[in-house]
Amino acid sequence: MSKTYVLVGATSGIGRQVAARLVEQEAAVHVLSRHADQGAAPPGVMAASCDVIAEEPVFPEIETPIDGLAYFPGTIKLRPFHLLRRRDFLYDLEVNYLGAVKTLQRYLPQMKKSGRASIVLMSTVAVQVGLPFHASIAAAKGAIEGLTRALAAELAPTIRVNAIAPSLTDTPLAQSLLNQPAKREAAAKRHPLQRIGEADDIAAAVCFLLTEQSSWITGQVLSVDGGLSRIRLLS
Q: 197-206, pLDDT tens digit by residue?
């Protein structure tokens, strides 16, 4: 029987790769994005325009049970702590955390109808590894990790909830950090595996957690970070 998935912010980068993988599995894939109505959605999906950071987002109706939901919107605005303003912290929380909360509350009834649904949220390596200029985004993603574990406990055994914590990945969101050869080389050398992550590296992990391949996994934050959070190489 075909599965139904909802992907928020899946018109580029990691989300787009996840959509493509699920379409290959002949799943029904709903993509929600601010730009979905501009032809940016991946082929083979059902696209709907939705601004999740609006005070009261207009979510599309999905009548069928939802087997999986993944939330991809994120921010990378790295600044020294003393230059961050209240609006910076609030914006990071709105995009990374509160948008996910609104989406999950809206579609929770349809996920419960599935009986074996899965939720995947996005964190960052910066929650576990102290990185300069990450104060705002690390705080927002730390909230995501807390939400992941709390909901995993509250929604078990009907719904599984996990998160992915990537390191720097070659996506449109990260282009300001990778727009010069010297930046790319330095970023690659920081990782034990000596390369930057690719969108499909993260997409493979998301699909694993969304599908029945991970049916006995919940409440976890999976590090997909080239070893950055766990390994130190001898020089």
A: 999 999 999 9
